[in-house]
Structure formats: structure tokens, C-alpha cells
Amino acid sequence: MTEVLRRLIGPWRRSLQLRVVTSTVALGVLAISLLGAYLFQQVANGLTDDRVRTARAESQVLAARAQSTFDSSAASADTAEFNNVAGQAVVALAPPANDTTRYVVFTRALDNTAAIRLDTVLTGGLRNSPVPLSLREAVRTDPDRQQITIIDLERSSLVSEPSSASWTRPDLPAVVIGQQVQASTAGPYDLYFIYPMDREQATLDLVQRLFLIGGVLLVTLLGAVAWLVTRQIVNPVRRAAGVAERLAAGHLNERMRAKGADDLALLGKSFNDMADHLQSQIRQLEDLSRVQQVFVSDVSHELRTPLTTIRMAADLMYDQRGDLAPALGRSVELLHDQLDRFEALLADLLEISRFDAGAAALELDQVDLGALATRVVSGVETLAERRGTVLIIDAPGKSVLAEADARRVERVVRNLVVNAIEHGEGRPVIIRVAQNTTAAAIAVRDHGVGLRPGESSLVFNRFWRADPARARTTGGTGLGLAISLEDARLHDGWLQAWGEPSQGSVFRLTLPRTAGIPIEESPLPLAPLPVDADATTRLRPVRLLEAP
Amino acid sequence: MMSRIVIWESEWFSVKGRVLIVDDDLALAEMLGIVLRGEGLDVIHVADGSAAIGAFQDHRPDLILLDVMLPGMDGISVCKRIRAESGVPIVMLTARTDTVDVVVGLESGADDYVVKPFKPAELIARVRARLRRGDDNEPERLEIGDLAIDVAGHSVTREGSQISLTPLEFDLLVALARKPWQVYTREVLLEQVWGYRHAGDTRLVNVHVQRLRSKIEHDPEDPKIVVTVRGVGYKAGTGG
Questions:
Q1: ipTM reported for the complex, 2 dp
Q2: Residue A119 burial (CB < 10 Å; 0-12/13-18/19+)?
Q3: Most buried of A23, A235, A545, A547, CB within 10 angstroms?
């Protein structure tokens, strides 16, 4: 039961079952109401027609009896006497006092112009005449035939309460039949028989109650059936969804139960076929990835060993280049430099393919980004001095800790700082370190040529160059920022760039302080504040490296 | 199996040590020989792993340069076998920088590693750093926790019983014990113990600290002698 309740309360949108059951019940209520109303009307009409038929037959007999009484009683000159006789004749038409099946009203016809006037007679405790004027008019218009109408007989028009059970409502439908009798010298008089339909009403009330109970039961049954049927459909679908989720979560051996030959079994089979297919595809990709990793590793080893020999030989020659002929000496220098470049390129390529193969793994530790920045700055001291660049670290007094791979983060920061020095045109480079509750960040700001619009996302592309026409002067491989971006991603961190032409650029690395807890916001702005122009005077230089 | 052992006679001057090169690449081995010989070192070469153990036992080198990928027996196994009987400095030559490969190499007992392609100067610096130790030991006794260290005698004892450490582990322990009040960053330890002049691989420190702890701590899971200072590095503990 709680299950049903939960489903009913649960959001309409989420449960197909709830929707089906609700719409089935709604449609059922509508159909049963329409059908019930129609049937009820038919029963009511049948009952009324029946009553009218018996009433007409009975009233015809009674009216004839009254007419013959009037005919046989010789016209008396004495009005009072005649009045008395007429009254008795009318009362005789009514049933005994405690019988409420019939009331009689005897009244002068509307178009009677005779001089003698008889009293109007109401039988059976009628307080006033419930006969509508329209019926009286009809009797006047067509006096030779019985005129019939159905009225609502009001309880207030009765002197005594009838005992019948159906007299619980303020009014009750009643058949009224009117006809004319000739009261000899007194002229035409209307004789009305009123038949309250209390029995018919009681029957109708019973039928209505039965219809209501039946309708409620039917709707409940309909809802239950809909619930059962949808459950048979929805449960396998839900199971399929569950299996699909587990598949997506990496449990590739999950399968649906697919027994029988019905549509659901077909669904199960198709689903399992899909899962088999997916599984084999994934296995294939995993194999490919493994092959790729092994290949990368092998290439690495195979290339590096001869390269080491070449490198050592070249270094040996390079150390003694002074003893060589000038052309040979210069050749050795070129060989030496290009070997450096080749090595860097090879290392970066292998690193990138390691990322591509998904073989890169994090070695997490608590890393102090401030200390790391200081370390990086002292490592690039020589380069900064050669370029005449001042390096400034702006870090809080306390340590800025993040759970990160020190080797990778240091590589990223060194790369950013070297880039800033190389593109900073000798102007100061500021390295900011900060933290907030979820993240720690390092931003490297240079004041060099900056970036053109749109370039801030292109810089992370492999082998991207700001100006392809510009001669390559620096030793970069073109993969540095791409690798840095991969390193940042591996940490679930951000690496973003900002730049304006001739305003310089900012590269910001944001790392989660605790692995697995997402960054909400970087503690450092990406774009520099407008006051940044005199930032160098505002900053507290932790380490200041002046060009000599 | 015939082991191919080549011995280059050292130059007549300045023999400072004997290096065993275990590498299957003959060109690289020869080049290494030329460079090391140029530094005045004696060089022995074997080309496969299974011959390395025999060559080590026959020649008792002062240092071993060990390629990780070898025919016969791989470098990791060779390293474990040699480490089982000697604390001789082992420098691995590896073409892989993946964390797993490096850590496995270090955990098998190597003191240091050089990634191919390396510069001759870099290799020589590492080799010198590993050979240099023991040159200038003056009598000195240190205490760290419940351990007694005899620096000149290269021995560590706990309640009179000797604890066997490799020379590198010994150096690491001595560095920490000499200044028990100081917290050493991994970088400083790399410089002092391994002789790195520039930033090196801090994984070296981590792995060796683990190895040292497994030998000297009562409970390596809850170290008391070599204590981690989160976010900074290591320091000597009270040993309690």
C-alpha cells in the first residue's frame, strides 16, 4: 500500500505508471458517468411512462364513475343539496384516508358560465391545489380528452405528512391527469387526479445508489487493472533502465532477463544484443588503447636508447669543438642544439600520446603552490636574466596547499612562466598564488604582445603558433600548453588564458584543494583589474629577481 | 650460458671506482664506457640480465648502471637479486618516466635512476654523487629515536643489534638525524643525499623514505623516527 501511495504522491512526470493509471481512471469515470446518466434516464422515463399509463386507465374509470354519479343525480334546484352530492361523489373517488396513492381535485372549469356554483373539493389532505394553470388551460382547450402533466408535488401543499419513505425530500414528482365532467346544471367541471410517484422515486433512488456503488467499484477495478497491466510493462522497462545504468557505470557483464517470446522478451533480447555489441566494442577499444600504450612505451624505449648514444657522442664532440675546424665545430654546435630540440619534441610527443592513451596517472600529495612557484622561479632564473625580465611572486603569507601531483603542477607552472618570459618583451612577469575554500590557483601575468581576440582558446591547441609567418626563435615544441592543459584536466582543474593585444596575457591554473571535490570558483580573476598597471608597486615582492 | 663480459682497461691515471654496466644495447654500452673511462672510472660491461649477477659477484663493482629492459632477466629482477646480497649503489637507466615504472624500479632497490636520453654530464654527476660518499667521514655518533648511528663506521644499531641499511638509506637517515629540529623538503633531501643540483624527481625521496621506514620503524604504517610533515617534507621524530 505504501508503494501505491508513494507512486501516487511521486511526481507525475517521473512515473509512466501513475500517468497511465490516472488517465485510465479519469476516462473510466467519464465513460461510466455518461453511461450511468443515460441508463438512469431510460429507467426514469420507463417508470414514468408506466405510471402514466396505469394512472390514465384508472382515472378514466374513476372519471366515468363520477360522470355517471352526476348524471344519475337529478338536477336539484337546491344548490346546497347539489353541492353536497357532488362533494360526496368526488370524495368517493379518493382512496381511504391513510392511502396516499391518489389525490383528487374537483374544481369549476375555466370557461364555465353556469349560474350554479359548486365548491372546489380537495381530497386526501391536500391543502391547496397543486394543479398548474397550464394543465387547466389544456383541459379547457381540449375538454374531450384526458390531459396529462408531471409536476413536482410540494410537501407544503399537504396537510399531513405521508408515511411513505420516499417523502424525505421537499417535493416529489407526481402525474396529474385532468378531464372534464358535466355536472348537469352546474356546467363543466374539471376533475384532476394526482398520482404521486413515491414508489417510482424510491425505485429510482435505489437504482441511483446502485449505479453509484457500481460505478465506484468499476472505476476502482479499472484503475487496478491499469496499474497491473502497466506494472507488467513498466517493470521490465525499469529493469532495463537499471541494467542500462549499471552498464553505463562500467559493469559490462550486466544483462536483462529475456525469457519467452513476447514483446518484452524481444526488448530484453535487443537490449542484450546491444550490450554485447557495446561490450565487444569497448573491449576492442580497450585492447586498442592497450596496444597503443605498449606501442608508445616500446617506441619510447626503442627511440631513446639510440638517441642517448647519439646525445653522448654529440656532447663529447661538443666539449671538444674548440679543437675542430670552424665548419666542423659549427656543425657540432648545430647538432648539439638540434638534439636538444629533438629530445624535447620526443618527450612532449610521448607525453601527449600517454594522455591520449589514457595512461597518465596522478601521484597526489599535499603541494604548497607558493613554495612551488618559488622553486619554478629559481629554476628559470638564468632565462629571466638573459631576457631582462623581473619575476615577482605575489603569494599569501601562509602556505597554499592543494592535493595535486607536484611534478605535473610544477611542469605546468614552469611552462607558463617560461612562456611569459619569452613573450613578455622584458617587462615584469607577476606570478600570483591564492586560495579559497575549494580551490587553489596560480596565475602568471605578462605585459608583452598579448593575445588577439579568439586566441585565448587556440593557444592550447597542439603545435599552434600565434603568427605562423614569424620565425621560430624560442625552443618551444608547440606542445607545452597542450600538455599543461591535459595536466590540469587530469587534476579536474582549469587552465585558462586571457589576453589583449599589447596588454599582455594571463594564464591561470586552478586546482581543487581536495581531489574529487569540484572547484566552485577560482580564487584569482582571469582578466587583470584595471589598476594592474601599477601592480608592481602595490605588490609585496616575495622574491624579486632583477636583471643585472 | 656463455656470458659476454667485456672489460675496458682503465686509463693509467685516477682510478676512482669500478662501474658495472648492464645494458643490451652495445652501442650505448660502448659510449657509456667511453664517457666513464674519460672520468677515470673502471668499466665492466655485460649485455644480459642473467650474466649480471655473476659479473657482480666476480668483480665487486662500486656502482652498477642497470638498464631496465634486458634480455634474460629484466632489470627489476636483477636489481632485487643484487640488493638481496649487497647495498652497492645501483643507478637504473630507464626509457620510461611513467610513475609506475619509476616506482617499481625504485622499490626493487635502485638508489637513483636516469631517464634516457640523458646528457653525459648528468649521468656523471649522478655516478659521482653515488661514489663520492665515504670519502670524508670523520668519527661522529648520532642518535635518532632509539637508534644509534656510527657515521664513520656506517652502522646503525638498535639496543646493540645491527640494522642493515644500504649506503643511500644510511645517508638519508644521517641527514635527518644531524638536524633533528629541521624539516627537510624533498628538494633539499634530493640535493643533500642524491646530489641533485637542480630540481629532481621527488618520487625518489618518497620511495626511499618508505624503504627506510620499513627497516627502522617499529610500525612502518605509523612512523615515529622519520615523520612526514604534510605539505612540506620530512623530519626526524622523537622515536617514541
A1: 0.78
A2: middle
A3: A545
